[in-house]
Amino acid sequence: MADFHKADIEKLIDGVLPWPATQDMLKSAKDTDRFDKYVAIMQERVDFDEEILLPLTPMLFIVAKAGERIVQCRCGHAFGDYRVNWKLSALIHVRDDEKSMSEVYRGREMPDPAWIQLREYICGGCGAQLEVEAVPRGCPPDFDFLPDLDTFYSEWLGRPLPDKSEFKDLTLDRVAEWSE
Amino acid sequence: MVALSLMDQTKVYDEAFRKTGHVFGLEKLNRKDSDPGTYEAVWHILSNLCNAAWATGCKVSSSPIAAEGGDALWGLHTPTGEAICISRGISAHAGLLADMIKNFIAAGYEEYPGFKQGDIFENNDPHYGGIHSPDFDMCMPLFHEGELIAWASCVSHVADAGSVTPGSIGFLNPDCYSDGIAISMERVGEHDRFYPWYEKRIASRTRTPDFVMGDARGRLAGCITIRERLQEVIEKYGLDFFKEASREYVEDSRRYAVGRVKTQTVPGRIRKSQFKDLAMKGKRVLLAKQDVDCMFNMPMELTINADASVDLSLAGASGTVPFGENISPTALKSGLMMGYSHIVGFDMFNSGPISAWNIEMPPDGSWANPYPLDFQAASGVAWAPAVTWVSSLYEVFGRLFQMRGFIEEMAAGAGTIMTAEFSGINQNGMYLTGLTLEQASQGSPARGFADGENSAWCIYTPEADFGNAEISELYYPILFLGRNVAADSGGFGQFRGGLGHTAVWMVYNTPGLEYQCGDAGMRSKIVGNHGMYGAYPAVPDRPAYGHDTNVKELIDAQKPLIHDRGGPERPALASVIKAREVQDNAVAPFVTPEPLVDYDIIVHPIAGAQAMGDPIMRDPASVVNDLNERWTTERVASEVHAVVTSKQGGSYVVDEGKTEKKREKVRKQRIKRAIPFKDWWEKERKEVQAQAGMDPAVVQMWVSSMELSPKYAEELRKFWNLPEDFTFGAQ
Complex ipTM above 0.90? Predict the structure, then answer.
């Protein structure tokens, strides 16, 4: 089984690992402790102390905080319960006319705003653009990933988390609160 | 002991799989465990045997699509149809070929007309599991001492399948009756020869019968190659070894894929919305019902279970379209298997990996399962929605690999597929119709550690080869004026997609040529929903052409011609060429209203792939490199990537200090400009309810999605807090 150095994985993340070494990683049997190494690297790079449970994206992390599992940006900005689509707690900028779309796409490269809108999800803490959606009006935001964290830790990694959390999408519950 | 029929054997295997979770019920891989060296060696021999069939078959076929582009595939299957291994070529078809054999067995063909050595069976009919008429699927049963021990299979993409419009990308077909020649689960030959009536049908019902029969002979030659080489394998290793090991290869491959899912992803639920436009209103169409713009809803919901099995749903898929862009569930599954083979199960590619998938039947009457409600639905280019949908799979697994730290395996979404087909008399006085291979070299998706590669990848085939320009010029009455990498065509992100290219053709030496700018998975009104990690998706496909031009005068006067697509606000065509008809920003797909003539110009863009990551996190050095290579523009460098540059000695250099300040300013502006999601939701839900600013194509898409998938509709209503009886369009 391959055993890649943490330093090389960091170089890979930064896009500076030489191509032959990258190819070696691609071709070799995978290292079984990659997840732990990756989390350790990201833990050193984020601006918060909470324990990372899962790197949801390179910028967003599910962390353990005060007995809860919440989504948190690299900068430490919190988005709440990981079972609610974090986009509902983000800032959003929507481009749905030619003027706003032309800041990105010009002339013949511009999509038709009557067909789609560009939704930019922004971190309220650091201003990072976390996701962009190009969808027609009416499309609910994608809940990109709802992990089954307890199954992952207990059955796949073999080390259960100290607490449990039901694998359930709570997004519509949040929306229902807004509707009351 | 009396041998079971293949139909009964299939039932036994299905039951064994249901009970054990192992393909064929193989809980142990005895051949692998007892002699791993031979096991591995024979796998490679079988794999190479398929590749030998590909090399032979493509050369026997005279069509440029196979001979130049390798657009074909050969496979070796178990007696019950599971693919053991396949050749290089269009791997998208492995599932189709396996299911075709299974369909022949399920339909009782073993009893009548029976299977014997030298039989040739074919299907290209989507109603019976085919994908679209130009893809001719063939299989031959292989016998050893009277026992059916395997099948050889093949698919090749013919130049013309006799559909209502010339060529093989029949997006304009209004119904299945216009899809062209149908080979509907037929025995088309015996004793290694095609029936004369098969050849006569091809002669009278396709426009390029020599090429189509050439492809048929190529398929046959490849299958016979497999048969003969397999005999050598059996003589050397024994029949028992072959039979047992071939089943183990399938189960082994399933285990590999399941293992990868378990060790490299995370259990949970992923959702990915995806959309595709097909804007045809006001264009040249065939029937009145086609004077309409369409939008496809092509959602993907994927659940990875605790046992690493994968559930997949298309709930919410929109209804059929009155064009040749509907696909059967069988064919869609094959497309999915192809995507999965690129991403997860690629060690021993065969039927194994997808056996761990539970694919929910797509909604009846949707583009992904048309026939229960729309039996006449056309499938002239069924790949169009399929590859657009499968593109989501790359991003989905890219996200999963990231979560486990396997950065080297990450990928963003794929590029689109817009095709160019010509029909008319070529420079040799010969009628010709067919597909160029330009679209077979898109950019590759951005990776987790680097940009994608330019013009080096294709979603539907690992043979990412656009062929030699000179060969295209040999067949078609065109001359290449340009074939070059297109700036800013790979989306905008920390890592961009590999860039696409532009082919610029001049029509030459023909009395008239139809140019069909076809849809095999393009987008022209919209961009894909591929804003992975904050990137902006790749630009829409917008071709251009000039008809009745002044190019001859320009050539005679030795003045500059056109060699690329030009900038988005200054298309090259209109700025260089004068013509009676100029379309420099055409919405694809379309067929030119009139045949093109000598010195007419076509500017045909080929897509780049998708990007990932916040554009202002892109390494300024990469931006500057792109500027110096002319792979990006000053505007994009400055306004999208927020990089400050200057020119020194003719080259761009980055001002790192100013760039950092500019990026910090952009971050602050973003926070100031954006609003809390809830504030937007409160405003937007009213706009949704009022259907404000929504194109009729979008409204109609939502109408059909909600009608066909009630649970999807319920969730959509709940999200926007709409009345329980709310439907789009009903105002």
Answer: yes
